Amino acid sequence: MSSQFSFSLFPAARRPTGEPLWVRVLLVCAAMTVLTLFLLLPLITVFGEALSKGLDAYVAALSDSDALAAIRLTLLVAAIAVPLNVVFGIAAAWCIAKFDFSGKSLLTTLIDIPFSVSPVISGLLYVLLFGLQGWFGPWLREHDVKLIFAVPGIVLATVFVTVPFVARELIPLMEAQGTEEEEAAVVLGAGGWRIFWSVTLPNIKWGVLYGVLLCNARAMGEFGAVSVVSGHIRGLTNTMPLHVEILYNEYNYVAAFAVASLLALLALLTLAAKSLLEWRFSRELAAAARPGGAP
Q: Would the N or C end of the chain have less CB density within 10 A of its end CB?
């Protein structure tokens, strides 16, 4: 009787939606089933296969010279591509969100091109431009500059496919913040760089970090575009995803899954860091919403 009475007094608390209980249970079960089939089971399979022959075989696969070269190249490419995209993303977002100019919509559209173009197609475009038979191929050959089937081509392809991540995180954030604080800084006599470092950058720091995480994860895991421009030269131009493919095609499953487990760990770390950033950002917003902005 008391439970019925409490239910009638607080219907919103007991029934957050108007759907029957069995519908909500069914939806939750369906969501958990999908997550288990398409997320948990693949992760378990990757680590299970990687360790199927013991820890020694796992360590040996990761300490192989070709695997180490692939890991080093992946880290090098990410270390170059991510800072370049951070600089471009901040500059593009600042221009789009803070200024009105002709070609603004075109710039916004161009930023989204890597989302709509297949990575394999983007890699083929670089081959068409910079390959030996490409538009700039003869000039590059005459000046002994090698882009395709070399590290510079891998960096270019990675930069292209990761261009939107930082910019797309910052554009809506900076548009929502408006220009009032920058205008106030101008009135107080601050210069452009001082405004950027003291006003703009602190307001977008969480968006920048979030974009860096996504950009770094995509840079390390990119396969399609890099596969086209790398040439699959073992120990020289193979990144971790390409090395996994080669090992798998050679039926060296333990080594393939061992390297793949590093990529899976990267994905898990990125997810954890993303959740941490969202938590910190929500706490900062809540603190700013309190009277006086007290933490």
A: N
